[in-house]
Amino acid sequence: MFMSKRPIDTWGLLETFIDDALDGFYGYMDSDDDLSPFMDGRNIGRLKKTQRDHWQATFKDGYNNAYYERLHRIGTAHARIGSRRIISCAGIEFCWTASITWEHKKAGSVVAKCTRLPAS
C-alpha cells in the first residue's frame, strides 16, 4: 500500500523548514478575520509543537497504529472547535510553500557558490 511507504529521511528534509511553515500558517490563521476566532485563547506555541511532533512521528515512523490514533485525536479536537477541513488544507499548503521557498534558497546558495569558483 502506498501510504505505508515513505521516502528515506523525509523528516530530515521537512525538519529544515517545518518551523517556518508553522509560523506562516499560524500567523495566517491569527490575521484572517474568519479564521482568527479559532485561535482565541489557544496556546499557539503548544499547537505548533504538537503539530511539529505529529509530522515528525509521521515521517520518521510511517503510517502505523500510532499515526491513526493521532489522526483520530486531531480530528476530534478539530471537530470540537468547529474547525473546517479547509483549514487543514491551508496548513498543508503552507508546508509545500515553505518547502519550495527552502529549495529556492538552497538552489540560490549553490548557484552563488558556483559563480565564485575560480576560472581554470
Helix residue percentage: over 70%
Number of helices: 5
- The secondary structure category is mainly alpha
Main beta-sheet strand count, sense and barrel state:
none
Would you tell me the overall average pLDDT? 77
Number of domains: 1
Strand content: under 5%
Distance between the ends: 51 Å
Number of strands: 0
Poorly predicted residue ranges: 110-120
Shape: globular
Short description:
Helices cover 71% and strands 0% of the residues.
Describe this structure in words.
By secondary structure, this protein is mainly alpha-helical. It has one domain (2-115). It contains 5 helices and no strands. The relative contact order is 0.14.
Task: Indicate the topology.
Elements (H helix, E strand, L loop, with lengths): L9 H5 L3 H14 L12 H18 L3 H17 L3 H31 L5
Helix pairs in contact: 2-3, 2-5
